[in-house]
Design a protein that fits this description.
The complex is a heterodimer of chains A (about 130) and B (about 575). Helices cover about 20% and strands about 20% of the residues of chain A. With about 130 residues, chain A is α+β, with helices and mostly antiparallel strands. Helices cover about 40% and strands about 15% of the residues of chain B. In chain B, α17 crosses α22, α19 packs across α21 and α19 crosses α22. The chains are: A alpha+beta (about 130), B alpha+beta (about 575).
Chain lengths: ~130, ~575
Amino acid sequence: MPKILKVKNINKCIGCFECMIGCASLNFHSHTLTKSAIRVKTKGGLQSKFAAVICVGCTEPACAEACPTEALVPRQGGGVVFDGKKCIGCERCVPACIVGAIAMDKQLRKPIICKQCGACAQLCPHECLAMEEV
Amino acid sequence: MLGKDYIRVLHINLTDEKVSVEERKDLFHLLGGTGVASKLLEENMRPDLPPLHEDQPIIFAIGPLSTIFPVATKTVATFISPLTGEYGESHAGGRSAMAIRNAGYDAIVITGRANKPTYLSITDHSVEFKDARGLWGLDVEETGRIIREREGIPGKRSIMRIGVSGENLVSFAGVNVDTYRHFGRLGLGAVFGSKQLKAIAITGETDIPVTDFKSYYSTFRWLYKKVVETDLMSKYHEIGTPINIKVLNAISSLPTKNLQQSTFEHADDISGETFAQDTLVRKVSCVGCPIGCIHVGQFRRLFDKGYEYESLAVSYDHELIYSLGSLLGTPTASEVLELIDEVEETGLDAMSTGVALAWATEALEKDILSIEQTLVPLAFGNTENYKKAIHYIAERTNDFYRTLGEGLTHATEAYGGKEFALVYGGNEMAGYHTGYAFALGQTVGGRHSHLCNAGYQYDQSAKELNDEEIVDYLIKEEKERCMLTSLVICLFARKVYDRETVLKALNAIDMPFTDEDLDKMAEETFFTRLRIKQKLGYSLENEKFPKRAFETPTRWGKMDEERMNKLLHMYVERLKAEYDRYSTAQ
């Protein structure tokens, strides 16, 4: 069964950013935190707790629908599969994602897309993240 | 290292607003952190000028492991200390190391003096000198908020800033980093103030490719597990450093009421356990640390009739609970949090502030000072008056507080009372009245921190005291820590980063260092610090221990002053011999 990344207990987050450090190095071979498909930030507002912006694994992904070149196609079980060779860097996927999970890699001019690999969840010391069967 | 064999140094001159970058291959063997920052200080400092002269530099350095390996979270700052007049080194975590790394630098050197209050905005593609006239006079929190709204990428930036104490050149003003972290000790805040530098915002997205993915990622995962799944660091995660309060109290080592006592009748009320049970609302981390040692306590206070409450969230640690708690006779956890909050807001160093106020309290009791000088009747346990006095120090309200703000060495020269001023090596004491190794360790440590050589640890774990062994231990430990703080790991992870682990981590990022290379760089750094101190006219032989230290029992009973002085003499002789050996070998 395919699995999808879920944010479980974000109030337990300590802001260590190991999920981002792991994602950037594993999936994008970079030590640069902005090259992570998961983005932990503070919520803002009165309490300013942490929030994790992740690909929520849509079964009808708007980002893929917005993609004119089929570089993004729906993934079985939810989310998308990205083919960088087909991507022309038009950035239409970015605003299409309603949860704001897609950022652009400024150097490569390609979107940073979550593979639903679950490495971030393995690196969370407080189990704020988990991979769940669809 | 990460695809390069040099240290990338950003130079910023505030006077003429000039910026340059150099790639220093000759510094590469020093790793980063303490090794690089001490060397850059030696190159850029002006021993002929006072500490707050505009030509004196501020140096920041991160290390090869920063951010990319667990618990390598700290940035090292070096400067000439306005408190001691000699070598200044202070460390802070938060997001600082990550931000400097992603801005694309290993070290930053700041010289000159801005012609008006300024903050620096450093990114991966620019350095901007921004008008901070409107920020001058604002507290630390508000300054942070305003800059946060103007600069950088949320979550990927670091904001260092000073409060009014730094602006007013208080010798023990610190620099607050992000939220809850600080370059606390030795007065970096005053150095910022002397340059009219209110803050530095750093951010960036420099692409740093992983050079050998397989090797890096497997080592990263292995280290992550070592940190998270073993109990090597559980002390820092659970109750946190305040676990020491009860431990030290039980062995007569908790400095209390200006060290008139070494046990505190309210120790249980301000213990780590009490803080955790009654105030703890959250734990947070520096970037790249899965431990979460930053303990945030909350308390509420009534500000008006009709159930009008305000609530404050404040981070606490052993050192603050000691200096603003037991040392001032503060009887409850929430009052300690209130005092910490005042120190945060004004940007002072919590330890020096507590020690200075404890001395002033006793001096007032002894009629060395008058209430006209202290403005409020300082008394152990009187939190309201201490809250006022913290502001008097930061604002330098009258001549007395102006002098107190120069540190206790200066204040006791002016007013007397040196015998009960808790100063070791020119720096106000840390929270461990454990015995000889602590007292000697803070005195002889390169940056006069208890963390230079962990003498307190020797005192606590030794079965019997052996003078030779103390001297050996302090020198050996300080050299090793010179290496660890060059990587730059947080010293809380020192048990994780044994030699084998350090070599493995360096190898995984294409830095094939050997054990011998580490020995060499540790020694070079140790002696660089010593040489800087000598150039600044510092000599250990002039050091005197406060009389009070010998009047109050430690874990080892009352210390003997003669033995202490002998120990210092032994240390000095050993150091001379080592330095001669080292110099001859060079």
